Fold this sequence. Notes:
This protein has six helices and eight strands; from the N terminus they run ββαβαβββααβαβα. An eight-stranded mixed beta sheet has the order 1-2-3-4-5-6-7-8, with helices on one face. The protein has one domain (2-216): Aldolase class I (TIM Barrel, Alpha-Beta Barrel), CATH 3.20.20. The chain has 224 residues and is an alpha/beta fold.
Amino acid sequence: MINEIFYSIQGESTWAGLPCVFVRLMGCHLRCGYCDTEYAFHEGKRWAVDDVLAEVERIGGGCSLVEVTGGEPLLQPSVHELMRRLCDAGKTVLVETSGACDIAACDERVIRIMDLKTPGSGEVERNRWSNIEQLTQRDEVKLVLTSREDYAWARQVIAEHRLPERVKAVLLSAVHEIPPGRELPGATGLSLRDLAAWVLEDGLAVRLQTQLHKLIWDPAARGV
């Protein structure tokens, strides 16, 4: 089930700033309080894989970078055929996953951006810690932080699992202010300046990231 397919600027990860086609799948089994794509929980329609591939080419004009996201894309078994065929077509394929699903089934050519859930997300107990052993130097780990407590938790996890040695990049994000949704409580936001100060104080081997698309367009805009 597809929620939306759109062509935009990649807003996060080490791929930020590059033109990218996004394929957003419907559905998620998590309910992170700060989620900014709550509309993807229930909105979507069924597409054939061939039709998705054709739409990626149509709107992207040959763009070589594609991200499969959600929701939680790995909940849908057919996502693996989609990602495999995108790779076969010569695309660089990113998948953004919560890490609550098994990432081992992904095609080895797919770059996995795994979002480890912090206590402030409300879903920390859903982390599938065995996924960490599957990560490679092509993959990235993202942690969205809501507070100083989340930062301290993330710092400990990064050290215990030696994440900078395992992956291409460890990405720290300060949560944006998110209004309450239909199912979610929202978030008050975390100062990016405060997060930067904590990272510099501790000398963490991480990449501080913003959501670039929210600086370019309205933070509540869809399809960007």
